[in-house]
Every structure is written in C-alpha cells, then in structure tokens.
Amino acid sequence: MPLDMELEAVLRPPALEMKPYPPKVITLANGKKMVVREAKREEVPTLLEAVHPTLFIPRDFYDIVGARLYAELLAWYRYRVRNEYCLVGQIDGYLVGIVNGRMVDEKVGMSYHTLAIDRGLRIGAHLFAAKMEHHIEYLGQSEVLIVAESPIGFRRWMIEYGLEPTEIQHELGGPDSYRLTREMYFDSKPRLVVGDRPAPRDLLDYALENVFVADEETINVKIAGLKGR
Amino acid sequence: MRDVAIIGVGMIPFGRRDEDSLMDLLAYASLKALDDAGLGDKSVNAVYVGNMGGGIIQHQTAIASSLVDRLSLLPAAAETVENGPASGGSAVKNGLLAVASGYYDYVLVVGGEKMREVTGWKATDFVSTMTHPEVEYPYGVTLPGMAGMFTRLYMEKYGVTREHLTAVAIKNQDMGALNPYAHVEMSISREGILDSPHSVVNNPPVADPLHLYDACPVSDGAAAVILCPLEIAKKTGKPPVLIAGFGQATDTHTLQERDDPTDLKAVSLAAKQAFEMAKLKPADIHVAELHDAFTILEIAESEHVGFFKKGEGAIAALAGKTKLGGQIPINVSGGLKARGHPVGATGVAQVVEITFQLRHELPKNRQVKGAENGLTVNFGGFGNNVLAFVLRRVQQ
Fold this sequence. Notes:
The complex is a heterodimer of chains A (229) and B (396). Chain A is an alpha+beta fold and 229 residues long. In chain A, 37% of the residues lie in helices and 23% in strands. Chain A has a single domain, classed as Gcn5-related N-acetyltransferase (GNAT) (Aminopeptidase, 3-Layer(aba) Sandwich). Chain A has helices at residues 5-11, 44-51, 62-77, 123-138, 151-159, 182-192, 201-209, 216-224, and strands spanning 24-27, 33-38, 84-91, 94-103, 108-116, 143-146, 164-169, 176-181. In chain A, helix 2 (44-51) runs antiparallel to helix 3 and helix 4 crosses helix 6 (182-192). In chain B, strands 3-2-4-7-1-8-11-10-9 form a nine-stranded mixed sheet, with helices on both faces. Chain B has helices at 22-37, 54-58, 63-70, 87-100, 120-128, 143-158, 162-176, 190-195, 199-202, 230-233, 265-278, 295-304, 313-318, 335-339, 343-359; strands at residues 4-11, 46-50, 77-81, 107-114, 205-207, 210-211, 220-229, 241-250, 287-289, 373-380, 385-393.
C-alpha cells in the first residue's frame, strides 16, 4: 500500500544530525580480519536475515536479544525510532556481529543491543567497544546508558568497563541503567578498544560489496552448538 | 600381579553440553567403551568413576552407584574416586590394580564432569576447593592465580617468555581443530594473540603473566576405558594396549612449602615409577598427553618427565620439537587447552587418546606414525598428587 507521505511526515520522528562512524579493521585471535563499519539503512533487510535465526535460540538469552534487535532494526528501517545507528562486523563478507544504539540527545547515548553471530573470538566485546567508541568519540556524547540482558553481557559491560549504576530507567524497560562516562571510556580504551584506521580499502570495499549471511544451521551451531563457549 | 590391558575405549565430544546431565555424560562414554570392547553388559565386574565436582556442582554423591544401575551392570561393584583434577587418573589406577590383583577380570573406568551448568566464577571457585582450606582458599587463591605465580617464577628462573607459551597454545589449538572430541576446534594465530596490538582484547590477561589462550576452557565431558587381563585381551580383535607402567606421587599441599616451587617433584617421581615399571626410558616414548591446564604446565612437565632438560622445554616447544612429526609429539589431541578439561574426565581422556594412537586408529593428520609407546600425566592440585601411565602397543 502506498504511503501517505503527509501522515508519514507526522509519524516519522525528526532526527539529529549524526556524524558517521569511520570504519576500522580488527585482527581477531585466529588471524582473520574483521571489518567494523556503520550499516546503511537500506541494508536492514539483509541484517534481519542474519538476526532471524537467533529469535529461536534460548541459550544465553539470544532469543530476547535477537527479537528486540530485530524490532529495533525494523523500526529504524521504517523510520519509527529516532537517531538510531547500527554497526556491523564482517569477516570475509559474512556478518558476524551487529550492534545498535541511539542518541537520546546531543549529550546522552542509549546503548541497545550487541549480538555476536560467531562466538569464541570476542566479536561481541570488540563490537560493544566500537559502539562505545562511536558514542563518545564520534558522536561526541558525554555518557552512554547501558543495561545487560544476559549474564555474559553483565560480565562484559558492567564489570569489564567498571560501569556505574544510575537510577535512570533504560529504554529497554529492564533494570535501571548503568552509565559509561567519557572519563571511564578513555580509562578503559587502552585495554578494550582496538582497530586499525583507515580500514584497508580492499577489505572495506569487499565488505561493502559482499554482505553474506550464514545459513540458519550454521548460525545455530555457532551460537548454541556443543562447542559454544 | 597380572598384566592389564585396555580392550575398549569411549569418549564423547567435550564442550558445553547443556542438554545432558552428568549421569548422561558418564553413561554415553561408558556405553561407547563397552561397545568398543565388544562386551555388551554382561561381563563387567566393577565400575570406577572419576569425578571431582558432582557433590558440589550437581549436589549428587554416590555417583558410581547411580551409574552402575543406569547401565544395567548390577550387581557389579562400584566406587566413585575423587582426587581433584587427578580423579580420572586415580580411577584408572584403581581399576588397574583391581584387575592386576586377579580379583576382577573386567573393569569399567569412566571419568566425567559437568562444569558448564554454573557460571565461570563458580566453576573457578569449585576448582579452588582443592587449595589449602586455611592458608590459601580464604585468601582468594585460585588455580589460575597459582599458575600465574608459578609461571612468573619459571620465567625468572629459566627465561621462559610469552613467545614460548604462545607456541604451546598455537600448537594445541591447531591440533584441537582436527580433533572432533575437542571443545575448542579453532586454530589461533600468533598475530592474533601476541603480535598484533589488537591482542590486548583478543587475549587479555587472566592471571599475569598468563593470558586467556594460556588457559584451558571450562568443559563438560566424559571418557571411559575397559580393562582386563592381557591374556584375555589378546583374544580380542583389536591390538591390545598394555598398561605397562604407572606411578603416583604426592607433594606438599601448598606451593610455598616447597624448597623450589618450580620443581614439580611429584611429576618427576610418578613418571620415574611408571618408566621403571614399564622398563622404558623417556626416549622410548613416541607420544605423550601431558596435563596442560595452563601452557606453562606442558613446558614444565615435558622437562620433569625427562623429555627435555630443565629449562629446555620452552625452547623445544618453540622449535617445534613437541609438534606432530617432532622429536616427541605432545598433546596431539589438543590437550586440556583445546580438548577441554572436565576435571574428572581428563585422566581417563588422556588414556583414551593414547590408546587411539597406539592402535593406529587416528586420521593421518593426527596419528603419530608407528607409535608403540605412550605416556600420560594427570596433574592433581598444583602438582601435589600426580599420576603417570606408560602404555604400550602389544604385538600380536
């Protein structure tokens, strides 16, 4: 059905200007190179394909994270959430992780979700770090509000970054938010935030031109198989 | 005393087995070993189960009594053997002595552990219960912490560096990537865990100077062997593997009471006993499974069992002498580092792996060509209770 653009203009939230996230390349433990870059809105249908299998994986709360990320990405695609961004990790073109968040205002960032599709290589840790890097260094914000929906997330974010609890309700509706300040970010940066810039042109071009999604069985095995770590 | 042989082995893939209970793991491995031995369920006289944490993690005791019923092996004798991370080795020893004495003819030995149903913190705490209850545990000592201190001393005394440790980690993960039983079937690269500035995230410190990839994963898993007198084993179709020698030795409970904490006396003594009983020397061994819960332990044990002089294990590892095709292939299974370390299973899994090797059953990319003699070292506590076994392929 064609959109009524007059009404659509009312439904679509106005957006803040958001500075782009400069792509980078991270060498993983197995020597593979992961390109980390900002996703474009028109890539969302492909991203949803990668997220979809996780909706049915209860292990480590993947189903909750997957379902909510799916909805958040769809809302971004359909212009129903304000100031959202999405970063992706790709190895040899394959999507291995997706993170997202949004700007509440000029100063405050809201971290949404971190989804590692390949596991055991600290992809989630790298992409969460990239997300914090985006909020603090490129969007120039003062703080980021964060919650965890899994014990793994709690260990990775709250403990590794030494986040401070607040009494601010997080937009995801769970417990009160934890806060990452600029000072905490820069204290943690030497041990948690890495990546080479500028991203080598050949790797970046390949990632942009070839966005692959692993088949559902592969995603299931990587996330919830016997070898899951 | 009768000669004792292994006529059946079974192992299940190690990893994170959310769907299986501890009893499931033990039963699966046992059934595979019984099948391998061609025994069915009629002839087992006794069952020994190596397990460290059932009472703590699963809140279950008398595990062997439960297993023997579950396997329909009643009225076989059954006992659970708890000896820390050497529980598996101790269970094998008990089975060996029971057959050697002439009292039992067929014994099932199975080791298993299910550690992934608790958080990593709780698993680390559970393993720490083996430390001294008055002078270590209350102060927060963990096994990774002990290994970190041990590594620092070893570095100072023998010049071991992170480069040496990394060589062991890469070797064992490369081999684990070829082993379908391994928890971590993933190769790693020196660039990714040591040379690249990105390694600070990929391979963070866990207990300085040890990093993530210096430590074994926390795993679920089980392994089993069937023992019988050699004379009976010779009548089966498969090449019998003789337990030619074994040794067990203990050392002070706490590291700080040792004259030289870098001297793993119990490893040296256990290996010496095993070699003497087998009438073999370290140079006669073709393949070894050493207890590499941390990379430094593979290096230290390779010296203490006599493969290399003190201080030369690290150099040998870096030079590739412990790789498949090297002077003495160590942990061709991937070791604890990659196969995983379900503590009660490890000592049995080492014996299963060497049996595969001595039967020449493994694919070419994992088989030590022409292997006739193998060694296992199962390291309990921090070297305070160690078992060693020398296995030999019997020519028919």
